[in-house]
Amino acid sequence: MKTKEELKQYLSDVGFDCNHFNPNQDPIQEYKIGGIYLQQHMDEYVDMINFLLLQNPPIKTFLEVGAASGGNTYVLSNILNLEKVIIIDDNSHHHHSKRKDILKDIQYEEYICDSQSEEAKKYVNDLDIQFDFIYIDANHSFNSVKNDYFNYKDFVKIGGLLGFHDAGIKGLPQLFEEVVSKDNSFEMIFDVFHRFGNRIYRRIK
Length: 205
Known about the structure:
CATH superfamily: Vaccinia Virus protein VP39
Number of strands: 7
Radius of gyration: 16 Å
CATH class: Alpha Beta
Order of helices and strands: HHEHEHEHEHEHEE
Helix content: 25-40%
Distance between the termini: 33 Å
Strand content: 15-25%
Structural class: alpha/beta
Strand order of the largest sheet: 3-2-1-4-5-7-6
Number of helices: 7
CATH architecture: 3-Layer(aba) Sandwich
CATH topology: Rossmann fold
Number of domains: 1
Shape: globular
């Protein structure tokens, strides 16, 4: 499941939250609505998954900050064969109640609270894990995503990845310009933007 066509077919089959932000000129004209309620732009997501599949050593430990229905967790767990999956979510998204069923065959742990809180940071700290990949996709206002950044960036292992969904909208561009670009512990290694954006940094020290 590594070619772009195979990934697109797989993602089409598992189901999106909505179709209006995905390219209707794609050979797969209509994507399944519902299913795992994935909230991604098809081309952005396929590019990101292909990039993640190339990582060596492979990604095995994953923290998702803001999981909504669990669609992204479902896809990455299956495609990357993740061994340890942690979710931080406040269950404010309207599809949060679907997560338990969507992830019923996925081994994961979740902590329900405000991702920006000290309580959430303590929970992750007590896990005593340095993650291969942390993906931030919670509240996208500048202050909120800045708080998430400072809460979780130190839990990325040296050489590990820190990713952001919606990288081209809301408060994310401001975060990258004013905060992340000034942090010499991280370097940007992946960036794609068609409608929402996905950006990934590698922790270098």
